[in-house]
Amino acid sequence: MGREQIQKGEKFMNKYWIWFSRIKNISAKTKNDLLKIYKTPEEIWNLTEKELQNTHILKKEEIEIIQYQSYRQNLERYIEYMCKNNIKMITIQDEKYPENLRNIFDPPVVLYVKGNIQILKNKSIAIIGARDCSNYGKNMARKFAYNLSKHNINIISGLARGIDTYAHIGAIEAGERTIAVVGSGLDIVYPEENKKIFQRIIEQGAVISEYVVGTKPERTNFPARNRIISALSDGVLVVEAAKKSGTFITVDFALEHGKNIYAIPGNIDSNFSARNK
Fold first, then answer.
1. CB neighbourhood size of 25 (10 A)
2. 20 to 30 A from 110, CA-CA: which of 31, 179, 196, 207?
3. Cα dist. 181→132, 138, 206, 225, 227 in Å?
4. What is the pLDDT along the chain (277 residues), one digit of tens a residue?
């Protein structure tokens, strides 16, 4: 990609939004509260310590984090990398930002997208479940994803091993659209064995993340990822899940978001079909 093409891509990116999304240890809710006061990340970037204190919504350590110089460095490199690798950026102030995600308690301030942005607003069902799932669970995830896709419904999942993977495969085999919401930057495929599926999803749908490129798939990222899966969907289908699993974090978000939740009947003797209490 030539410099002219990169410059064209840069028109749709803004280093201040990248900086703002890059900041860790400040919640999406707090970031959105700041945007209600100051409108743009550029304004927040230029605030003094005293002005940040006067917002009365930031703790001392959060003020220090916002002014931390490390987050303000190399922002142009992020833009150049994203332009070269066809990673798009949607801010919460953009018209393309999905309304059902915008309206939750703590929407991401930025979404990074590889693939078709337009499908983020289409009717969708999330299919989620256990990583360590049974063959029955894999077949059900694949079958339901395939058939739902054929009825013009996007399949959303998290690209994780197990049920997520087979949900994406079902939509891919149907030749239809699927969306993967990931807990890392879009330059990192996790798990690594899903690289081919990752590419197929980009070709037939979209991979999205609230995390800037370079962000590793840290354990704490995945519960936050799950709220996006729930918010983007019109309903959540649980195939298999252990009593204590990330699946039920997504279910809790779905209940909070007012979504319908469905479950595939399973073997009553299986740990993946046990009632969650």
1. 11
2. 196
3. 19, 19, 9, 7, 10
4. 444 444 444 445 799 999 999 999 999 999 999 999 998 999 999 999 999 999 999 999 999 999 999 999 999 999 999 999 999 999 999 999 999 999 999 999 999 999 999 999 899 999 999 999 999 999 999 999 999 999 999 999 999 999 999 999 999 999 999 999 999 999 999 999 999 999 999 999 999 999 999 999 999 999 999 999 999 999 999 998 877 677 989 999 999 999 999 999 866 555 655 555 4
Task: Give backbone dihedrals phi and psi of 56, rounded to 5 degrees, phi first.
Answer: 60, 20
The residues pairing with 181 across neighbouring beta strands, listed in sequence order, are: 208
d(CA 140, CA 160): 16
Tokens of 186: 């879009």
User: Minimal CA–CA distance to 108: which of 85, 127, 90?
Assistant: 90
CA distance 215 to 30: 20
The amino acid sitting at 120 is L
User: Amino acid identity of 165?
Assistant: T
- With tokens 């703002």, the residue in question is 20
Nearest Cα neighbor of 2 from 59, 83, 117, 123 is 83
